[in-house]
Structure prediction request, 581 residues.
Amino acid sequence: MRIGFIGLGIMGRPMALNLLKGDHAVTVWARRPESRQPLLIAGAAEAGSPAEVARSSELVISMVADAPDVAEVMLGEAGVARGAAPGLVAVDMSTIAPAAARDIGQGLAAAGVDFLDAPVSGGEVGAIAGTLSIMVGGSAAGFATAQPAFAAMGKNIVHVGASGAGQVAKAANQIVTGMGVLAVAEALAFAAKNGVDGARVREALLGGFAYSKILENHGQRMLDRNFKPGFKSWMHEKDLNIVMQTAHELGLCLPGAAATAQMFNAMVGSGLGEDDSIAVLKLLERLSGQAS
Amino acid sequence: MKVGFIGLGVMGAPMAGHLLRAGHALAVWARRADSAAPLVAAGATQCPTPAELGRRSQVVFTMVTAGSDVEGVILGPDGLAAGLAPGSVVVDCSTIAPDAARRLAAHLAGRGVAFLDAPVSGGAQGARDATLAIMAGGDAEALERVRPLLECLGKRIVHVGPSGAGQVAKVCNQIIMVAAIQAAAEAVHLAAAAGADPARVRQALAGGSAASRVLDVMGERMVCRDFAAGIEARLHHKDFGIALEAARRAGVPMPLAAAVGQQLNALMAQGWGKDDTASLLKVLECARA
Prediction:
């Protein structure tokens, strides 16, 4: 399939590379020209704007930072809508607010473009391995068109529901992962303050009901004190803000997510924003005066 | 002085009345035209648009709900900005985000119009009694020019700092006040559940270190189960959205405010947004049902 790809950062680059490996013809565009290089070397074509990407594609995928970026590449001056032939399917795989996704979907529908929100979970590791979880909102026909591209990038691919439903699932995912990372960090801080070896605690817990991928993977990185991202804590903060904003608008009580969001807020404010989100452990240690 | 007033709700109407009684020529505009009737009967002039009101006024007060409402009446079609002459002053008494206030100030400065953010605390009672606390941000000279007008509305008028500083103070005010309402609700709830008469507990506390105006006024409402608004809870819910966004922008954790914000979300979900914030007590009671 002729696929356009916009946004070639930590996540976008390996995802686009996997499309090439899947024998798709890929045309790329990124704000910073130097980030296009690895893709061009691997055989992708280059376009001068998102509109031009759309002109040469049957399917366009965006993977950028935030809702205003998505709106710009999709609906801006030189955006996808400007170059789209009717029937084009546009897929945004960034994490943005469900309401923003629905708005962008409506804007694109006016240009005859079928829009899917398809955020992912699995981080850089999953993007490179092609094992991302992909949660999709939008039409069944659009989902069917995009399916071969999804298959090249991910494993657990679920059509969750109508427009915005993918982002709702992603926000739910961030509630679980945000609180999960904090829970594991608290458990390890608790062990340390009690003078017990965290590595042994983790090992003991892995066999029981507290088992989780987060305890296994993030827990190990906490024990190794390897705070390199992975998933930067400022991005987790951004995602939890989407959760809290949505809860505020809907009138939904989420006490755990609210407390967790404040921890991530404190991390960003105290210079831990560029660390992996497991650096919430450092914040806990600061609060309780634990030497790190 | 030729004064304009926009927004004649539960706060704005009594405030505008004080300005009129102090002998100022008052022009009014409200989204619902009928809300202007009592003031017009008392001698105020009703204007068809905010722009027209701006043309007639040297100083204009706005007292509306949200930042988007303030922006609408000032910058929208037939908005204030279209009518105001250079040298005039806009005093916004609404509670909006500090950033929104700064944007409006910058915009109006380009037209030679001063903008003060001057949110108030004291509720409907304070507005009626002209005992509001007024926290002002913006140009000091502009504040001095309107100070005689502000003195018709409140007793304590503090110039907190440059543009936006008044709204920052109001955010701080709301955090402390609504957290105190939540604390009072938890105390009343615990007292009842643990077998002590909440009215007696409140009475006992009034003499000690936990005494506060919130315990006094809101505690009384909770004990009497009188949940009719004073200030509608939905407005505190709106303010907490502003507070938590400000905290986020500053990278400052507010664990307590975040928790209280969730109780307010639950209050909204129960459909009590138009009741008093004392309804936070009923949110706690929901957990037992």
